[in-house]
Amino acid sequence: MRKTRLPTPATLKRAWQHTAGRLAAVVLGSLLLGLLTGHPWPVLCAGLLGVLVWHYAQLHALLGQLNRREWLQRPDAQGVFAELARVLHLRQRENRERKRRLLGTLRAFRQAAAALPDAVVVLSRREQRIEWFNEASEHLLGLSYPKDIGSRFSNLVRSPQVTAWLEAGAAEPLIDVQGTGAEGLRLSMRLLEYTPEEQLLIARDISKLLHLEQVRRDFVANVSHELRTPLTVLHGYLDMIEPEDVPEWSGMLSEMRRQSGRMTQIVEDLLTLSRLESRESLPHERVDMPSMLSALRSEAEAMSLGRHRIEIDDRAGCDLLGSTKELHSAFSNLVVNAVRYTPEGGRVRVEFHPAAAGGVSLCVVDTGPGIAPQHLPRLTERFYRVSSSRSRDSGGTGLGLAIVKHILQLHQAQLAIDSEVGVGSRFCCVFDARHRIERGAV
Question: Which ranges carry the Histidine kinase domain (predicted)?
């Protein structure tokens, strides 16, 4: 785009000289005419008034054209007003070119947004009214153009889940919400900052992804069920054979028992995960935390066999609201891991403390080898191991933390992990204030 060519000092000088020359000519002409008529001063005043009126007329005409947004023609005359009109003409041409480019960019943006498979909706920040949406929004969200422009988003997408999410600030993406467009759609939604006055809502169809996830869950559950019976039979036959009867097979029998036991535990853990993933909530009951902590101590001491220092620190002074069975499974997994990976002479400490915002946390702290930072984000993935032999050599299945994560998610709780190599690890189950019950309260 060409830039406006502003007048140079020489051009301005010539323009002012031309205007001054005109004024001088009017003054001299008026004086000569006045001397000839015998009335020099009245004729001179009339001439100057004429110059003033002419300048006013030029200015009035120019302002009128600008006010009416008329296209200014580039003048061929000279003088200050001609130079002003010339600059304004160039400015108009520059603005017209800029507008054309902006319209082209906007058209390209709308075409790109319309081609997106995701629903894109521009909302006003204050009232979350719809300002614009693409074609995919009609299919996924059931919006209709142009009648829905200006309407509140929550009035058109009638979902208590979506409404509560928007009212809460939509800080985190909303996963698996029923679409209001085509039947059977499942959506994920994100709300992004767009402009100081607008927000951008993006909805994506995850129906196929959820279907594939369900197929995976069914496959794992079915395979686990099918493996359980032959493993039970194999384990039973191995138990019937005494190593003393066939001393030459004692080593093989011991290894077969160990491997079949490990396979049985993997199958049981997979079935536990499938059961947890198929549930959306758990029954809520009072979880007696003093009894829970006592049971965790007994389990840790039984597994440690005196090789570790086991400590319990109960400062919360409250119970939890949740499933006693599932929470015991989660807490026990963390305690067993701590004992399993902490060297002899180390310490395993279970802390039940108050947390931020009226919540409460149960933390398992050990003095084990610690975990490098790059492994922490993936610890709750299935079968993820910090080292290829760590879980296998210690008897773990690689599924314990995945089970803990799912149990906590069903309790709307979080698993926080902090670890330092050579110092130890800290695994915390953090519950919000809704899951806290004061002891003695009914």
Answer: 222-435
* Residue bearing tokens 């004992």: 339
Specify burial of residue 243 (Cβ count, 10 A radius: 0-12, 13-18, 19+). Answer: middle
Q: Is residue 305 part of a domain?
A: yes
Find residue 55's DSSP bridge partners.
none
Q: What domain range is 175 assigned to?
A: 113-208
Can you give the CATH number for the domain in which 322 is found? 3.30.565.10
pTM comes to 0.60
Same domain for 428 and 290, yes or no, is yes
Q: Nearest CA to 353 among 320, 399, 388?
A: 320
Task: Give which of 17, 19, 40, 38 is closest to 28, Cα–Cα.
Answer: 40
pLDDT digits 0-9 by tens, 240-299: 877 777 778 778 888 888 888 888 878 888 888 888 877 777 788 999 999 999 999 999
- Count up the domains in the chain and report the number: 4
Cα angle 96, 99, 101 (rounded to 5 degrees) comes to 110
Q: Domain check: are 93 and 143 in the same one? A: no
